[in-house]
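Write out structure tokens for Transcriptional regulator, IclR family.
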Amino acid sequence: MSSIAGTRSQRGTTEQDRPASANYHANALARGLALLEQLADTTEPLTLSTLSDHTGLPKSTLIRLLSVLTELEYVVRLDDQPSFRLGHKVQQLARGYERNLDVRALASSEMKQLARSTGHTANLGVLDGPQVVHVCVEESGRPLRFTSTVGSRDELYCTGLGKVLLSGLADEELPGRLPAEPFAAFTDKTITGLAELTADLRRLRRRGYGIDDNERSVGLRCLAVPLVLDGRTVAALSVSGPAAEFSTAAQRDYREQLDATAERLLASPDFVTAISELTSTIDRRP
């Protein structure tokens, strides 16, 4: 399925990552932080020789830096060889960082721009059990518009956001996210059976976007695209409005704007961390 996918950048050596304007003390701090990043990139403790190879730093410099980081409990020294791994203080920093991330706040600026440029309500939703939950909503301000609220929920099988989120699942996972057949029909266009929905999702995966064509409410259309991170659909982004304003030409324009917005969101490390943490928290719930 064509989609906007987030990727993680590759790091160079510590010397390459060092700020060009760094003075002596800032340089030492940059090197220490880069060492923590090197340790975070592996599941095994790293020896002094390995760290030297990875960072380009002499062992004498590494010993001084690791001594300070070990004393402050950001690094733990293991006696054999010796080798080093991250300490518990790093987890405290990570938790503090995550506590201060808000998906709605991080997405709001891009979502407002999307609502202004399309003239329709912009929605960001995530999968939560058998429903989609709206985590950010920005309305266009027009008198005639689709209205929703942050925290509201809707069905998966008859909404643009919901069908995009379902399309990120394997076919065998679908029954666990859907009501018993026949699904409740909200309009005469609502899909009410698993077989028809599965076929619709396969078409969605091929074209790369989802559409609700008067399926949830008469007179309303919605166009939605997936946000994919490391091969997993973590969220869906949509615009919703009067059906008459979703001509074929308009849909092409909306699709381009949705893709561009999704790409910018996934280029933000803070947004990626926040949406990943949110979806992981939902997945861990019983």
